[in-house]
Description:
By secondary structure, the chain is an alpha+beta fold. The chain is built from 15 helices and 21 strands.
Amino acid sequence: MPNSVASQTLFLYSTTVSDVGTVRSNNQDSAFAGEHLIAICDGMGGHAGGDTASTIAIRSLAHIEHDDVNGDVSTVARMMETSVMAAHDAIVGKAKRERKLAGMGTTVTAVALVAGYWVLAHIGDSRAYLLRDGRLTRMTQDHSYVQHLIDTGRISPAEARNHPQRNVVMRVLGDFDIDPHPDIAIRAAHPTDRWMLCSDGLCGVLEDSTIEQTLTAYSDQEECAQQLVSMALKAGSTDNVTAVIADATLALDADAFDLPHQTPLVAGAASASLEPIADILNEPVATAPMLRDANASPAQRAAALIQSQPASQPSPRVAQPPAVREENGERANPDTGEIPVIQKRDGHVTDDPNDPDVAKAIHHERQTQRKETRKRGRRNRLIAILIVIAALALATGGAFGAYRWSQTKYFIGNADGVVAVYQGVNTNVFGLALSHEVKRTNIDIDSLPQAWRDQLQDGITFNSYDEAIQHVQVIRQEKSNFNDNSNTSKSSGNAGNGTSDSSDSSDSSGSNGTDGDSSAGSSQTDGGTAAGTAGDTGTDASSTGTDGGDAQ
């Protein structure tokens, strides 16, 4: 890549303005405006997720502000791609460690001025515009679904503006299964080049022609940024709105003492904690100017009331580098969120993932995290084992208690066809009987009435052994009574059969004496007459009548 000495006379002046908008409760955009680097990151993924993702991306890119590697354009291009990928890994890692951040992500659009060349890195649907010689050119291609539809000719750019899926991105950094590699472009820089980076809260509502007119009309960078953000809000933007304006300036004397210089500005979510970025750059960092109330629309003023924002504008805050904070008695805060900050032997502070010391620190941090993860895993397994043991102990104790209680009970039941006394309850648990036989009798089950058999089949329960034995005696007595009744019934049946036989004999005799029914009647009459003649009683007459029949 060409490396012109003359190109070193180009310097960059930049500023940024970001506003939460009229609908959102927090600002998920983050922006950086420095002397060598400008960047816009539009976060997504909920109240905390979008803030965190865009902040991580800005912190990952911030080191490029001073790490220009002696103006080597190719090296800076690789560095920007590596830094974007490092931000992706950091976002994914944090989302895995904190599940409430799952699904967070961010867009990244960044431009660096290196040795007279612009190095552009881009992923997502934030945009970069370049105004050169009064002509505006869009330098990025949206990685969005509607842009895909436009590219394939399925819809027009005008239709895309109101498409219901216009906010769906197809490539973005974060906790998604999406290609995180950014588009990298290199373009020669010209004096008076003006860049405008913005989130989709601005370019989604303003036409390119309006953006071009505003960039041309306002030479003051801050005034231009204020106007663009204000116009987007008045046009009805419901998203966070952020604009970064940067101008390339030609220094007539590159060795002059008063070279162009500015304090890097940070806007949006990343401005909530400036110290990590000050540590990375090892120089002061300030918050970007707020959107002025004078340009606020009625909707903005209503939103300010809802959000309970103070009417007065807060003054910009400046974070000093760690050495100054230590001198002032302030505690150094070298935490950048995900990428470790390393202080070199020469006092230089960096978080460049290409630096061997930073890479070593990242490796050490990952090893520590893996050890901690394994330790947590072992601890969780031990806790699980203890819970299982406690549950088994509780179950065993409960089972033992239930068994002890069951052994205080008795029941009478069937044991191989005879009545027996059991200790326990007439049931089983998982095949384990909760009773055992303690006394077997000689009472045959089949000798008992059916009602007793049914009760013994189910088991007749008692609270003590003595009660069970007493009931056995009752069953024995009932069995005896049942057998006596059965014998009595059998004797009565046999007597009835004898009388019937005598009658049959009488009938037979009568039949043999004479023919036909009349003869039998005669025999009975004669028998009766004989009985009457003999002078017997009525009872004896009956017997005589029978005997007479026999005589017949």
